[in-house]
Write a sequence for this structure.
């Protein structure tokens, strides 16, 4: 009994002091700022900054390789804190939010085929989707599963919905969508053209009740000249020119353009 | 010389279902009201249109030039007017893609410059054959649609000693190659010898599965007048006709993993349909504007083999085959193992379209996808020696790097694993998803 205690104790002492010495000798000097920065970052590892997780961004900021406003989900709050850690001035972050540019849910878009198989939009996209529209939302919720902030859910009618209060604009859903239906838009901009179909008007009418028919009424009615036609078949808003007047939304005959302020005033955004 | 071959790695015995259409002679499908000709008919760069809307064209006239080295020309299948050049829904790319829309005038007038190049192979040089293959827009008709002129000019450092002509047609239901061999054995062999001459290969082996005894007999008879051609009869087992599988079975050579190709082990492989198309181009001057398409399945009234103009709507061909018997369950472009389910039949025949399969409502019942039980049947069935369960399990969870490390890119998408899986897991679909993801990531890195 005593022998065992002494032997183990002695062995422990020898190895312990060896490890303590090794830790002293081979210590890696790490910039203390990295730990500080990491503590400030949101810690969601969403990848919006383009670095491998929050730790990757922290190291890059500490080295001066990334600007201190690189964390979009963190917003101005985080950017300010990072600026004070790094002791430099910092541009404000334009807060962004994910917008689903499709309103073709199960009621409004024509369903042409029944799909059985892998329940992932990327798999369904390889077969062309189950709706008539070759551009719109596929409806299997790959974006919702990709959201690291729980800021999306699928509506009962099969379209993803962004919970604006929770969305940080990290862009994980944008990257997950195989059809590019989701994009980031400035939070302050409330008027959106919710369609991605480049088909001509009559074709769009066949498969969707709310798709852009390229009538150009919005282009003509916009006082700011913020709306233009993309490839002649789809209206697009230049958000840097838009002043949220919402005239286009009232004029749009297909109800493709939505004015989120109006829907917010009336009822909760669905 | 005739050899009989049974060996194969993996694979599954599948019901052939060839009896539905194998007795129907090839008949001309007719001229539909509209032909849609995609710029992307083949692997490689899309063709570039050389006509404008409202142009009058004649049968065999070139309407699109090759868009690069790995590309092919496209010709008008019949006479008529170019109605539009616009994006249409492409059934294989599954997205909108540029197409020439041709409105036939019904006269089927041939172009003036269409004339035979030679009546026998002594009167034509290898370079001439390669040039003709390019000008006639000939691509591999087995499905992948790889431009034939590119295949015929392998890199200098590859020493090619054998040419295989693939008439195995292992895909269930399809009988297009079968009928071509049976009805046009002479032209198939003429085209085969042209392919061999163009690539400078001396040894040619014709490969046919033993479930087509009448085609074997026809080819054997036609072959008796030539020296130097061999015949390999292979036991029917899916995927016998995969080119890597065929090279291994016939010559015992293993094609290295992608980007390895049969020419890395000194072999070229072409489909019998390709040989037939090349023979037509040499003997009559007709470029690749039509192909044999099997319209079959329990869901059509009169399973048939059609000679269809490129761009013919599938709905037209199904109508010609007597229409649906009741409500169709599933319409598949290609065969049941490798084909893809369609969401619309208003899409056209492409150069690579070998068949249209219509399954009934009862046949298309989808069983629930159950968890993997790790039985390993997919590993036994995989002809490439992969582990489909692990590739798909990682792809299912979005772990594409891991899927890649399990050699997802080596998968030939034959479908044996999905077929054999007792848990009814759509393994190939997951693997295809992983492959698309890996490919796009590799492109982004470049």
């Amino acid at each position: 009994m005593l022998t065992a205690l002494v032997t183990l104790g002695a062995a422990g002492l020898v190895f312990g002091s060896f490890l303590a010495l090794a830790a002293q000798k081979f210590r890696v000097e790490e910039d203390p700022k990295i730990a500080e920065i990491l503590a400030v970052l949101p810690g969601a590892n969403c990848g919006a900054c383009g670095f491998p997780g929050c730790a990757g961004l922290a190291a890059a900021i500490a080295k001066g390789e990334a600007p201190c406003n690189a964390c979009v989900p963190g917003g101005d709050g985080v950017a300010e804190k990072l600026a004070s850690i790094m002791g430099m001035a910092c541009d404000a972050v334009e807060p962004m939010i994910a917008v689903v540019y499709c309103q073709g849910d199960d009621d409004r878009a024509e369903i042409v085929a029944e799909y059985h198989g892998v329940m992932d939009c990327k798999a369904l996209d390889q077969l062309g989707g189950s709706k008539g529209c070759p551009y719109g939302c596929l409806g299997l919720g790959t974006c919702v599963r990709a959201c690291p902030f729980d800021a999306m859910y699928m509506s009962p009618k099969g379209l993803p919905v962004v919970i604006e209060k929770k969305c940080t604009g990290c862009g994980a859903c944008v990257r997950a969508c195989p059809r590019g239906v989701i994009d980031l838009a400035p939070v302050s901009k409330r008027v959106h053209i919710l369609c991605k179909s480049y088909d001509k008007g009559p074709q769009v009418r066949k498969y969707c009740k709310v798709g852009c028919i390229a009538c150009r009424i919005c282009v003509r009615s916009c006082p700011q000249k913020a709306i233009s036609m993309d490839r002649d078949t789809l209206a697009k808003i230049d958000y840097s020119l838009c002043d949220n007047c919402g005239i286009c939304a009232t004029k749009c005959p297909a109800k493709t353009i939505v004015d989120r302020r109006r829907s917010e005033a009336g009822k909760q955004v669905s | 010389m005739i050899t009989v071959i049974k060996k194969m790695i993996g694979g599954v015995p599948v019901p052939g279902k060839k009896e539905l259409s194998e007795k129907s002679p090839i008949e001309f499908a007719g001229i539909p009201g509209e032909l849609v000709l995609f710029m992307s008919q083949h692997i490689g760069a899309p063709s570039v249109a050389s006509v404008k809307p409202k142009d009058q064209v004649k049968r065999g006239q070139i309407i699109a030039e090759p868009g690069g080295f790995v590309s092919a020309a496209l010709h008008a299948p019949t006479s008529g007017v170019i109605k539009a050049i616009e994006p249409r829904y492409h059934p294989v790319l599954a997205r909108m893609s540029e197409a020439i829309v041709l409105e036939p005038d019904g006269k089927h007038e041939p172009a003036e410059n269409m004339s035979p190049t030679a009546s026998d192979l002594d009167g034509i040089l290898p370079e001439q054959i390669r040039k003709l293959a390019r000008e006639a827009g000939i691509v591999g008709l087995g499905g992948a649609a790889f431009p034939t002129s590119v295949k015929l000019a392998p890199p200098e450092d590859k020493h090619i000693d054998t040419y295989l002509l693939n008439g195995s047609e292992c895909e269930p239901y399809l009988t297009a190659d079968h009928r071509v061999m049976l009805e046009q054995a002479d032209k198939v062999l003429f085209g085969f010898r042209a392919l061999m001459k163009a690539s400078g290969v001396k040894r040619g082996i014709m490969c046919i599965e033993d479930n087509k005894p009448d085609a074997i007999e026809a080819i054997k008879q036609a072959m008796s007048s030539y020296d130097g051609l061999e015949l390999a009869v292979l036991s029917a087992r899916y995927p016998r006709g995969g080119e890597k599988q065929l090279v291994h079975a016939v010559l015992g050579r293993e094609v290295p993993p992608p980007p390895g190709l049969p020419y890395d082990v000194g072999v070229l492989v072409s489909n019998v349909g390709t040989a037939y198309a090349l023979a037509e181009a040499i003997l009559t001057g007709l470029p690749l504007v039509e192909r044999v398409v099997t319209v079959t399945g329990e869901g059509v009234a009169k399973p048939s083999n059609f000679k269809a103009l490129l761009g013919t709507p599938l709905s037209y061909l199904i109508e010609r085959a007597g229409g649906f018997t009741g409500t169709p369950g599933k319409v598949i472009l290609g065969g049941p193992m490798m084909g893809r389910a369609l969401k619309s039949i208003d899409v056209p025949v492409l150069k690579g379209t070998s068949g249209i399969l219509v399954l009934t409502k009862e046949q298309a019942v989808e069983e629930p996808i159950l968890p993997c039980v790790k039985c390993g049947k997919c590993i036994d069935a995989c002809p490439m020696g992969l582990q489909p369960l692990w590739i798909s399990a990682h792809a299912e969870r979005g772990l594409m790097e891991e899927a890649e490390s399990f050699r997802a890119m080596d998968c030939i998408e034959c479908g044996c694993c999905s077929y054999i899986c007792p848990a009814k897991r759509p393994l190939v679909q997951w693997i295809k998803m992983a492959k698309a993801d890996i490919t796009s990531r590799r492109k982004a890195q470049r």
User: Anything to note?
Assistant: The longest strand of chain A covers residues 96-100.
